[in-house]
């Protein structure tokens, strides 16, 4: 609303100040609506924070609800000839491994003196020149690469071969000053992955590039033979086309790096330390969730008759959050169907009665995992569907955080309330503007009337003065 700077001049009254006070008083009608709007927005943010904290805790609970979690294995080996990793399907045991031979890819090299990598090496004007490249393996693949006159230099040949994606890699080797060679290597290792190539309709280029792997003859020279990896495992001969062996033993991936001088030991065992670390992460996540609960339900005491503190948590007294807390705490405290390990305390996980947070005795948990691994698994995972503490937690939390779950329903209700509030605030702003406009009009009329009355009074005073002098 534009300020009426001339208001009050006619009457001599401070109508501008009075109008400002009336405007402020009218706008005060918005305060409860704006405060409610801020409260709803704070609740939306709080539910977002709650959902994020629950999701992090749920991720770890879901991991503990899987049988594989408690079957995690670890590999102990100091070998320089190989490295190994294991999955939950690996069976604990001891293995001796001797790496006899590494798998390698076949490599062919051009021969003769090629003094320039950009010099055209084919017959100028040759028609229908085609490089035919065959890679054996499963399945075999034949690729025909048309070559123009300006594609017969080492540079262009390299780019044409690599661009054809024929299962080989071409590169240029700078042997010494004024000598270059073209190297072609199979993209895969193994004795079955060999290369043959020839050039049609250009005898000159063919005399440089032809090679037949079946006979082992041609213009090119084999500088590295295609060969399989060979190892002995517990005295058993094992052969693979790759240096990565994924099925001997099952659940273990062995990556060969060098030949062995003598057999080396690989030990597969249950990863007890890793399981303890992950359960500790679960405990830490639960404690972080408790901090979130405390922050969102914080209460700041006030004196009798005073308004609630603005420092209170946005979800103080919220029934949804109270329900989540109650559900999780009940599940944590419920006994599971084990002969010995029925509750968290038996696993070395205790609850602080003041803070509600958990603490972990890693030695006690390690002993439980060592002495009664199946009972520990059953405590957390159960049947992975209905029983087991972590299984039940995961199911319950999903009901809260999933799409269209409890939290989404709560936030949808808040958004509906915000929409109604926005409509009410818009309507109230319009009403306030109309009221102020009416006051302004009335003040202008008052000012005008007072101005006329003042003028009439002055005129009459002048007339009375003049009459008294006669």
Automatic annotation (TrEMBL):
Keyword RNA-binding: no
InterPro entries referenced in this protein's UniProt entry, alphabetically: Flagellin_hook_IN_motif (IPR010810), FliD (IPR040026), FliD_C (IPR010809), FliD_N (IPR003481)
Protein localization: Secreted; Bacterial flagellum
Family: Belongs to the FliD family.
PANTHER family noted in UniProt: FLAGELLAR CAP/ASSEMBLY PROTEIN FLID (PTHR30288), FLAGELLAR HOOK-ASSOCIATED PROTEIN 2 (PTHR30288:SF0)
Gene Ontology biological process terms from the UniProt entry: bacterial-type flagellum-dependent cell motility; cell adhesion
Flagellar hook-associated protein 2 N-terminal domain span: 11-106
Keyword Isomerase: no
Pfam family for this entry, one: FliD_C
Residue ranges of the TM segments: none
Alphabetic keyword roster: Bacterial flagellum, Cell projection, Cilium, Coiled coil, Flagellum, Secreted
Flagellar hook-associated protein 2 C-terminal domain location: 226-455
Chief location of this protein within or outside the cell: secreted
Record-level GO cellular component terms: bacterial-type flagellum filament cap; bacterial-type flagellum hook; extracellular region
Known function: Required for morphogenesis and for the elongation of the flagellar filament by facilitating polymerization of the flagellin monomers at the tip of growing filament. Forms a capping structure, which prevents flagellin subunits (transported through the central channel of the flagellum) from leaking out without polymerization at the distal end. Required for the morphogenesis and for the elongation of the flagellar filament by facilitating polymerization of the flagellin monomers at the tip of growing filament. Forms a capping structure, which prevents flagellin subunits (transported through the central channel of the flagellum) from leaking out without polymerization at the distal end.
Quaternary structure annotation from Swiss-Prot or TrEMBL: Homopentamer.
Name of the featured protein: Flagellar hook-associated protein 2
């Amino acid at each position: 609303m534009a300020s009426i700077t001339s208001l009050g001049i006619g009457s001599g009254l401070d109508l501008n100040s009075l109008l400002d006070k009336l405007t402020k008083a009218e706008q005060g009608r918005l305060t409860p609506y704006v405060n409610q709007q801020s409260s709803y927005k704070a609740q939306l943010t709080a539910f977002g924070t709650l959902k994020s904290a629950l999701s992090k805790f749920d991720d770890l609970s879901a991991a503990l609800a899987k049988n594989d979690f408690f079957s995690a294995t670890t590999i102990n080996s100091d070998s320089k000839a190989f490295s190994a990793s294991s999955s939950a399907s690996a069976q604990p045991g001891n293995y001796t491994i001797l790496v006899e031979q590494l798998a390698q890819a076949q490599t062919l090299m051009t021969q003769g003196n090629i003094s320039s990598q950009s010099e055209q090496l084919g017959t100028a004007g040759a028609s229908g020149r085609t490089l035919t490249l065959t890679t054996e393996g499963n399945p075999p693949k034949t690729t025909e690469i048309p070559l123009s006159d300006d594609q017969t230099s080492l540079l262009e040949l390299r780019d044409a071969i690599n661009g054809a994606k024929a299962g080989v890699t071409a590169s240029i080797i700078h042997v010494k000053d004024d000598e270059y060679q073209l190297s072609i290597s199979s993209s895969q290792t193994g004795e079955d992955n060999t290369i043959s190539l020839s050039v049609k309709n250009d005898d000159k280029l063919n005399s440089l590039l032809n090679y037949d792997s079946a006979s082992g003859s041609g213009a090119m020279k084999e500088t590295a033979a295609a060969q399989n990896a060979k190892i002995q495992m517990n005295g058993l001969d094992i052969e693979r086309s790759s240096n990565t062996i994924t099925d001997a033993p099952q659940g273990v991936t062995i990556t060969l790096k060098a030949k062995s001088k003598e057999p080396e030991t690989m030990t597969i065992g249950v990863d007890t330390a890793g399981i303890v670390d992950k359960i500790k992460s679960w405990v830490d996540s639960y404690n972080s969730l408790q901090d979130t609960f405390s922050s969102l339900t914080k209460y700041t005491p006030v004196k009798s008759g005073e308004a609630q503190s603005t420092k209170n948590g946005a979800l103080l007294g919220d029934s949804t959050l109270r329900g989540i807390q109650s559900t999780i705490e009940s599940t944590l405290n419920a006994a599971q169907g084990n002969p010995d390990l029925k509750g968290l305390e038996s696993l070395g996980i205790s609850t602080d009665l003041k803070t509600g947070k958990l603490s972990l005795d890693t030695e006690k948990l390690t002993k439980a995992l060592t002495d009664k691994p199946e009972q520990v698994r059953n405590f957390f995972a159960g049947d992975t569907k209905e029983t087991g503490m972590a299984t039940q937690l995961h199911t319950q939390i999903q009901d809260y955080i999933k799409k269209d779950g409890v939290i989404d329903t709560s936030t949808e209700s808040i958004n509906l309330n915000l929409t109604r509030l926005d409509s009410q605030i818009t309507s109230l702003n319009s009403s306030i503007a109309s009221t102020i406009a009416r006051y302004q009009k009335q003040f202008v009329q008052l000012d005008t009337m007072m101005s006329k009355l003042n003028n009439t009074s002055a005129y009459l005073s002048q007339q009375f003065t003049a009459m008294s002098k006669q």
